[in-house]
Design brief:
alpha/beta, 186 residues, 37% helix, 5-stranded parallel sheet, 2 domains, Rossmann fold
C-alpha cells in the first residue's frame, strides 16, 4: 500500500507595500481591512482621504516593543513600519515617507529628539510623537529642541493602545485618520 503524498512546504514572505515597486502595484490587487480588494489600475492617482492610510514609522531600540506597536497600530488601520535604531530610521524616512513618526527618546547613539529633528527637516509635513519611560530626561532634551523651533509632543510609557490612537488622531485634527473607524474594525 502506498503512503499518501505529502504536499510540498510552501514558503511565503510578507513584504511591506512600501517595498513593492510601483509598476507591480499598478497591476496588483491589494487586500485591505475587512477583505476589501483594491486593484492598482482602477484606483485614482490621488486617493481620497477615506482610502489613504496614515503611514506610521515606529522607532524603538526595543525590537519587541517596536514590532508589537506596529502590529497593534496596524489593527487600527495604520500602515506601520518598525525600525530599531536611528540610522535605519533616517534611511526608512526617505523611502517610506511616514505621515507620523512615533519614536522612543532614549536610544544609543542619537536620541529620539535629535532623530526627529532630522526627520522633520527631511519631511516638514511629518508629525512627531515622542515616547519615553524616562520623562524627566526626555523633557530636558525636548526643551533644547523647542529652543530650535521643534515643538514635539511627549507621551509617557507605558501607554495604552486607545490613548496612543487618540493622540495620533489628534495630530491630524481627527480627520484623515483611520482611528475614526477603529471601533468597526475590532
Amino acid at each position: 500500500m502506498r503512503k499518501p503524498a505529502v504536499p510540498p512546504a510552501i514558503h511565503h514572505e510578507t513584504i511591506p507595500l512600501s517595498e513593492v515597486p510601483k509598476v507591480v502595484l499598478d497591476e496588483a490587487t491589494v487586500i485591505g481591512p475587512k477583505g476589501v480588494a483594491h486593484t492598482g489600475r482602477k484606483r485614482s492617482p490621488q486617493a481620497s482621504p477615506a482610502e489613504k492610510r496614515v503611514k506610521l514609522m515606529i522607532v524603538d531600540d526595543d525590537q519587541s516593543l517596536a514590532d508589537t506597536s506596529a502590529r497593534l497600530l496596524g489593527m487600527f488601520g495604520y500602515e506601520c513600519y518598525a525600525v530599531y535604531n536611528p540610522d535605519d530610521a533616517l534611511a526608512c524616512a526617505e523611502s517610506f515617507t511616514p505621515d507620523i513618526v512615533l519614536s522612543d527618546v532614549i536610544m544609543e547613539g542619537m536620541n529620539g529628539v535629535e532623530l526627529c529633528q532630522q526627520i522633520k527637516r527631511m519631511l516638514p509635513n511629518c508629525r512627531i510623537l515622542l515616547l519615553s519611560g524616562h520623562v524627566p530626561t526626555a523633557h530636558s532634551l525636548m526643551l533644547d529642541a523647542n529652543k530650535q523651533g521643534c515643538d514635539f509632543e511627549l507621551v509617557a510609557k507605558p501607554v495604552r493602545a486607545e490613548e496612543l490612537v487618540a493622540k495620533i488622531a489628534a495630530l491630524f485634527g481627527g480627520a484623515y485618520s483611520p482611528a475614526n473607524g477603529a471601533a468597526a474594525m475590532r
